[in-house]
Write a structure and sequence with these properties.
Strand content: 15-25%
Number of strands: 6
Low-confidence stretches: 1-9
Shape: elongated
Strand order of the largest sheet: 2-1-6-5-4-3
Helix content: 25-40%
Order of helices and strands: HHHEEHEEEEHHH
Mean pLDDT: 88
Number of helices: 7
Length: 196
């Protein structure tokens, strides 16, 4: 990208900000968001949105609004109290910051219907932090391979030991229950991009 493209006014940017300024402001917000999630400072995380909204594509679930997002934070940190991120890369698009990162933690509480296994996990993820025309964060849309996560959580059990058989059976039952949940209708037929 040429210097002109990053130093001149950004197309449709508020108050004539340059593309570099726009990207820096978005990137700071995203990094603050990640940092506050690790610190479990939920008020600070929620302050990065005018209206909190998460879309988890692998599970086809949406958490919309303050109460729903707080519930999501509570349930994930109950499952993984030491959850952390390792940023791999941040990329910019016209309306988003795309974060590629490792999510890691220890399964110490229930993950939905799946009981805790005590296993560590490290899963590569991508999150799209989407901004509106007023440069407000309107959505965090997360993509990851749920099978990789589940293999690490359940695969960490020593099945040669009879003491783990009951836990493995409970994990399988919980996994089947989770697999049967109804997808959020808004994710089944999203608006399609118009390509020139």
């Amino acid at each position: 990208m040429s210097t002109e493209e990053t130093t001149g006014p950004a197309p449709d940017a508020p108050a004539g900000r340059t593309l570099a300024e726009l990207r820096a402001a978005r990137q700071k917000l995203v990094l603050d968001h990640f940092h506050d999630e690790v610190r479990q400072e939920w008020d600070d995380v929620l302050a990065t949105f005018p209206h909190p909204h998460y879309e988890l594509i692998p599970t086809m679930t949406v958490h919309d609004g303050d109460s729903a997002v707080r519930g999501y934070y509570h349930s994930t940190r109950r499952a993984f109290p030491d959850q952390d991120h390792e940023i791999i890369a941040l990329r910019h698009s016209d309306d988003a910051v795309i974060a590629e990162f490792w999510l890691l933690g220890t399964h110490l509480g229930p993950l939905g219907a799946i009981p805790p296994t005590g296993s560590r996990f490290r899963v590569r993820m991508t999150a799209y932090f989407i901004f509106d025309a007023d440069e407000q964060l309107v959505c965090e849309r997360v993509y990851f391979d749920s099978l990789t996560l589940l293999k690490q959580l359940i695969g960490g059990l020593d099945l040669k030991s009879p003491k783990n058989w009951l836990l493995a059976a409970r994990c399988l039952r919980g996994l089947l229950k989770e697999a049967g949940s109804t997808p959020d209708p808004g994710l089944l037929d999203p608006p399609r991009a118009v390509l020139d």
